[in-house]
């Protein structure tokens, strides 16, 4: 990669939760090294990660308006860094994506859209969904995938509770082998229902889910990172 003075940035809305946001930054840097040949400081894009402690609107719907007001305020602040694109380091927060996009001319890169593209490219026709209960009830992934002819396998209510408990543990800084094993059991249950791949549709799950199992894994953090960098470097080449 040639040494260049990058004047534009990637803006990331994070903090939901902070561990996953930090992981996204780590993955972005690793992909720059591996896929874009970044060696010197100036080879990397400017990345503005705003880890925002918004009220928990995922579990408590009464917090959705205060959370939205906070997020739109931070987007306006991030615009001063002249970002090429925005990303949100949280799948469930994509409930607010359309409303947030109205508030800025900077295009958002949607995790939901990018993950759906990867599933379609894989040519599988049924995929299992590991996400928060709110993401399931919102049909964010189901609508996008079914529009592309992809069947979606949802964990049972009990399995959803297990996944949600693991996510909460990660947010609390607790990552252990027992939780990893619980997720593997849920994934195997989905496989018995003819699932051909697994979407890690909560960014916290990328911190704990094993990299290699018998099914293809669609890691929403890695997919978002690749999409953000692709947009960034393509735009820089144009300019």
The portion of residues forming beta strands comes to 5-15%
Rounded Rg: 18 Å
Please summarize the sheet with the most strands: 4 strands, parallel
Helix content: 40-55%
Tally the helices. 9
The gross shape turns out to be globular
**Assigned CATH architecture of the largest domain:** 3-Layer(aba) Sandwich
Weakly predicted, low-confidence segments: 1-6
Q: What spatial order of strands do you see in the largest sheet?
A: 2-1-3-4
Q: What is the CA-CA span between the terminal residues? A: 16 Å
Q: Structural class of the helix and strand makeup?
A: alpha/beta
The CATH class of the largest domain: Alpha Beta
The total number of structural domains is 2
The helix/strand order is EHEHEHEHEHHEHHEEH
Please state the average pLDDT score: 93
| Number of separate strands | 8
Q: What is the CATH third-level topology name of the largest domain?
A: Rossmann fold
């Amino acid at each position: 990669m040639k040494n260049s003075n990058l004047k534009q940035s990637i803006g990331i809305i994070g903090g939901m939760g902070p561990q996953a946001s930090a992981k996204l930054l780590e993955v972005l840097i690793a992909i720059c090294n591996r896929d874009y040949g970044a060696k010197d400081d100036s080879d990397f894009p400017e990345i503005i990660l705003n880890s925002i402690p918004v009220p928990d609107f995922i579990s408590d719907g009464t917090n959705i308006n205060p959370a939205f007001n906070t997020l739109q305020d931070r987007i306006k602040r991030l615009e001063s860094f002249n970002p090429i694109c925005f990303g949100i380091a949280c799948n469930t927060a994509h409930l607010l994506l359309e409303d947030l996009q109205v508030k800025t001319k900077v295009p958002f890169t949607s995790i939901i859209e990018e993950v759906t593209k990867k599933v379609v490219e894989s040519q599988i026709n049924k995929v299992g969904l590991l996400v928060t209960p709110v993401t399931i009830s919102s049909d964010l992934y189901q609508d996008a995938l079914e529009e592309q002819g992809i069947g979606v396998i949802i964990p049972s209510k009990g399995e959803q509770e297990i996944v949600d408990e693991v996510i909460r543990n990660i947010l609390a800084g607790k990552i252990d082998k027992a939780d990893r094993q619980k997720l593997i059991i849920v994934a195997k249950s989905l496989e018995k229902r003819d699932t051909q791949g697994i979407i890690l549709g909560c960014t916290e799950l990328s911190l704990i889910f094993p990299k290699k199992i018998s099914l293809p894994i669609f890691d929403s953090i890695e997919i978002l990172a690749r999409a953000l960098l692709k947009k960034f470097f393509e735009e820089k080449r144009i300019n």
